[in-house]
Specification:
The protein is of the alpha/beta class and 213 residues long. It has a single domain, classed as Alpha-Beta Barrel (TIM Barrel), CATH 3.20.20. The protein has nine helices and eight strands. An eight-stranded parallel barrel has the order 1-2-3-4-5-6-7-8, surrounded by five helices. α1 packs parallel to α2.
């Protein structure tokens, strides 16, 4: 099962990432993705261990961005892999059976490839321009989301990602998307987690009903 709202950590330093993860958990986040770039393996492991301690205390799920080896070492709930990261099939061989794998997609073809590799969820975007992640991929409007969702007709949970605000949620959900991943809007106001959950129809304990095989 996967929560409808994912918080992707954001910060100008490793300390800020941890502070923001703490605030997100305090505000009721059900799932946090630790996303740190340009960081040594040693530092990433240390911050991942800190994030695991915090999220475990709040019974919040933790996903590690990019690095499945660290996800396994800190016993995170899973890993999120971008198109330039390890293949989900390779990661699956190394992870614990209970750990989940998410993947990033920008197109219908990306989604089809990830579904074939049996990822547990797909983050499809960017919905809007974002300063959180550098990407050359074109933004996807609600019509793009609907066309892709309709074509896929998949049971794999699909999340919208990329510059999403509270004002976007209603229109996004109408496309058939299962949930959203948010960074900037939540980092700006952690109290918005409650509002996002209300719009998604998910309380702090209610989750999207999907089983992971």
């Amino acid at each position: 099962m996967i929560p409808k709202l994912h918080y992707i950590s954001k910060g100008s330093s490793l300390k800020e990432h941890i502070e923001h993860i703490q605030k997100a958990c305090n505000a009721g986040a059900e799932l946090v993705q630790l996303r740190v770039k340009d960081c040594s393996q040693k530092k990433l492991l240390a911050i991942a261990q800190e994030a695991r301690e915090i999220t475990a205390h709040f019974q919040t799920r933790l996903i590690i961005n990019d690095d499945y080896k660290i996800a396994k070492e800190v016993k995170a709930d899973g890993v999120h892999l971008g198109s330039a990261d390890a293949c989900p099939i390779t990661a699956r061989k190394h992870l614990y059976t209970w750990q989940i794998i998410g993947g990033t997609a920008h197109t219908l073809q990306d989604c089809e490839a990830l579904i074939e590799k049996q990822v547990d969820y797909i983050s499809l975007g960017p919905y809007s321009t974002t300063t959180t992640k550098e990407t050359t991929a074109k933004t996807l409007g609600t019509s793009d989301y609907k066309a892709i969702i309709d074509e896929l007709a998949t049971t794999t949970p699909m999340l919208a990602v990329g510059g999403i605000t509270l004002n976007d949620v209603k229109n996004i959900l109408e496309t058939g998307i299962d949930g959203i991943a948010v960074s900037q809007a939540i980092t700006t106001d952690f109290n918005s987690i409650r509002l996002f959950n209300e719009l998604l129809g998910a309380s702090s304990t209610q989750e999207q009903r999907h089983s992971f095989e």
